[in-house]
């Protein structure tokens, strides 16, 4: 997620750096998450685009734009989102989703992957359905990086997604652990700044 002055200035920056950007469309799920997390107005405009950074076949980079010119934007929102990286995620696009296979993949993410199903949304602007998974509290406690996973499926799978249970309590615990992890890291850094540390030994 980026916080440019305007959407246009972000697109100009991408073009200057040779990163072709797809036409921006309104975000649905990330917008909903931001609205709920920061009590934003429902008409807050969050845009999404995708960048192709190399000429060869490679993953695209999905970028969400919340411009600072928006009446809903505040510096505290931008600061919190940058610190925690709540919207950082790895996305897998499934062009021909099969409900049975999709359910097995989601089950695998929630068991061996130690993730929690976080919900879904259908974006009518490109006719895709996103299923989001957040790392569990155990993962959030162990490390600062908090990459979520997104299964982006072609078509409207609203009915399928609605049948999957969202473990609300587990999600709240995971996000609480992530915030606590950040506070612990900040406290340790502050304490370390006042401490003379021994150099790390180097061996030949």
Structure write-up:
Helices cover 39% and strands 21% of the residues. The chain is α+β, with helices and mostly antiparallel strands. It is globular, with a radius of gyration of 19 Å. The relative contact order is 0.13.
Q: Measured on Cα atoms, how large is the radius of gyration?
A: 19 Å
| Succession of helices and strands | HEHEEHEHEEHEHH
Strand count, sense and barrel status of the largest sheet are: 4 strands, mixed
Uncertain ranges: 193-204
In spatial order, strands of the major sheet run 4-7-6-5
Total count of helical runs of at least 4 residues: 7
- Return the structural class: alpha+beta
Q: What share of residues is helical?
A: 25-40%
> How many extended strands?
7
Name the beta content range: 15-25%
User: Mean pLDDT, rounded to whole units?
Assistant: 85
Distance between the termini: 42 Å
Shape: globular
Describe the secondary structure blueprint for this structure.
Layout: H1 7-16, E1 25-26, H2 29-38, E2 47-51, E3 61-65, H3 75-84, E4 89-94, H4 99-110, E5 115-123, E6 128-135, H5 137-142, E7 148-154, H6 158-162, H7 168-193
Parallel strand pairs: 4-7
Antiparallel strand pairs: 1-2, 2-3, 5-6, 6-7
How do you describe this structure in short?
With 204 residues, the chain is an alpha+beta fold.
